[in-house]
Amino acid sequence: LLRRQGDDVIIAPVAAAGREIVAERSALLGAGIRITPNRPGLVTLTEARRAALIARVEAASLDAAEKTEILAQLAAEQVPVALVERFDPPAGG
After folding, report:
1. Contact 47/57 with Cβ under 8 angstroms?
2. What is the pLDDT of residues 56-78, one digit of tens each?
3. pTM recorded for the entire structure
4. Strands 42-44 and 78-80
């Protein structure tokens, strides 16, 4: 923490490198509260992970148009994180 300016907090870039930071906080969010991070963006998949996701989509009970759209997104170099999380099972379960 470098300093506070009103409601803003200024942190050193070196201290934030490789860490996740809560950008906005509501009255419901405090110490010890577990949150699910909202990570918008795109990821690059390995070929093995891409193949596994494609197999899950093909096995899913989706209508043909939706399945075609999802498979087109998975064929791209970068894939939306939300799409990957939708078809990637949680670790250990």
Report:
1. no
2. 999 989 999 999 999 999 999 99
3. 0.55
4. antiparallel
